[in-house]
Amino acid sequence: MAIVCKSPAEIEKMRRAGHIVRQVLDELAEQVAPGITTMDLERTAERRIKESGAKPAFKGYYDYPCVLCTSINQEIVHGIPSEKRKLKEGDIVSIDCGVVLDGYYGDSAITVPVGDGQPEQTKKLLQVTRDSLYRGIQAARIGNSVGDVGAAVQEFVEAAGFSVVREFVGHGIGTKLHEDPQVPNFGTRGHGTKLRQGMVIAIEPMVNVGKPGARLLPDKWTAVTEDGSLSAHFEHCVAVLEDGPVILTQ
Ligand code: MF3
Ligand code: CO
User: Fold this and answer.
1) Which domains does the chain have, with CATH numbers?
2) N or C: which end of the chain has fewer CB within 10 A?
């Protein structure tokens, strides 16, 4: 599949989709508290997306059943919201949301602490994962390659003593949720697809406290760490433009 570079008008549409995702995630971050369920978050998101005039991007994508992915603690990504999953003090929850507006996609994720009783290592995991995303974004420049983005993320994460997941990667995004190229959170500088003016990529580091390995739960969606260690996930859509990277999910 060819990589599609976007015109300024298309990037503007993606910015609008991205802005809706941001507003939804901001509201969900406020709602996260001990005692609420991940289905409570799902209902808020579904209502807000509808009110915005956009459509959810994930529901029905390969038969995925919800508008959000909600992944608690050792869950890496693609946890399915459930009435049975009640958040408790000290947990962390990754919330991943995508929408399509006027034919263009926005996709972003955050990991939020539940209450404030997290151990220092957990706080460090959230900080390092968020910062690694910004390292990746800073590398998303014309003339750099996808390998520069992955290397920037990986080097930062590993220097902090954590590890990056290999089984799931970021992606191009535009008139489809997933476009070429794949954007791994690991790599070699100077390798892989060269970044060009107008490319839009979703950069989404998934970082484990322990070993990098992942496995799927029997629901065939939820990815968890093989070693049971905690995992965090942050994601932004980024346009590669003349003056540098521009975050569209802002
Ligand atoms: N942000 C995730 C991704 O980009 C969400 C996909 S969930 C799915 O891959 F259900 F849509 F597959
Ligand atoms: Co994504």
Assistant:
1) 8-247 (3.90.230.10)
2) N
